[in-house]
Amino acid sequence: MKRVSIKDVAKEAGVSATTVSYVLNRTPSETISSETTQRVLEAARRLNYVPNLNARSLSSRKSNLIGVLIPQTEPGKEFMFSNPFYGELLSSIEYTARQHGYHLLLSGTQEDQDYVSIARNRGVDGIIIVGTYPGRNLEALKAIDAPIVLVDSYVKDETFHTIGIEDRDGARMAAEYLIASGHRDIAFISGSIREHGVNSKRYQGFCEAMAAAGLTVPEEAVYSGTVDYEYGLHAAKEYLRRGRKQTAAFVTADVISMGLIKGLLEENLRIPDDLSIVSFDDVYLAQMSYPSLTTIHQNIPEKGAMAVQLILDAVQSGKKEHTECILPLRLVERDSVKRRE
């Protein structure tokens, strides 16, 4: 079926192609009457005219596309579909972009995959990268003439805009809450603890709070795996295998906490009676789990909205000044912590 063109609409409306272009692109013009405008719009509607976005992007040098890259930092994991954190973040990014006439190109990438080829091949106006680490991929991206926003990354480079939280402070807050609730033997359960990563920062904050209270963190109290529900199930079995020496746990992601709770319930252990839990993220499922999670709240939708807004501001202004945004954290008390005397 032949694609309806601007010339077809012009012929149907009895006007020039230039006039059609002005009307459909809402170009200000005092010479186009309201009657002509209405005639063009009705002709476009009758012919089911659909704008050619590729042609429009060539003429304007804008694609109205924002690339979102989520590096695969843990091999074999489908982060975008298994962790509700990413669902909430991506929903916010997509909604904010759509409200401003933009669309997303979403890509999960292997850790050694070339970011530059992805960005150049897709012709995006800006790029949002979630949870990346320093390395050659980021260095190569400096050659891209498009604004780049790093979300949840501890890369310090003024080439990139950054949005994040103080993971160290949030972990300290979680540990202090458990200590204030009477717990002394506290486990740390997280994804992989890598240098320059959020779990590393959360481990630092946890250890600082424990040390400030005169408490130690023995090796047997540290559990490190992957950020997913399945690892929570595994950690529950490992907790039993290690002898259940802790009365509480700080878990660095709600999705792990949910697996941990399920795994412990299957072993006839109760939360919080047998193990108290403070988690991190406050995804929407945290209040639906049983028991509901006491957790460190971060504003995930705000992260997504701000990332898009930084792209739009940079595209519109043409300026390249570095912007760093740190969002606040707070502890949300629910039902997963028991006070010990």
What does this entry look like structurally?
Helix content is 42%, strand content 18%. The protein is α/β, with parallel strands linked by helices and 341 residues long. Helix 6 runs parallel beside helix 13 (300-317) and helix 9 packs parallel to helix 10 (198-212). It is elongated, with a radius of gyration of 25 Å. The model has no long low-confidence stretch (mean pLDDT 87).
Number of helices, counting only DSSP H or I runs of 4 residues or more = 13
Structural class, by secondary structure, is alpha/beta
**What are the secondary-structure elements, in order, as H or E?**
HHHHEHHEHEHEEHEHEHEHEEHEE
Shape: elongated
Describe the main β-sheet briefly.
6 strands, parallel
Give the low-pLDDT segments: none
The oligomeric state of the chains shown is: single chain
- From the alpha carbons, calculate the radius of gyration and give it in angstroms: 25 Å
Strand order of the largest sheet: 2-1-3-4-5-11
Portion of residues in beta strands equals: 15-25%
Fraction of helical residues: 40-55%
C-alpha termini separation: 76 Å
Q: Got a strand count?
A: 12
Mean pLDDT, all residues: 87
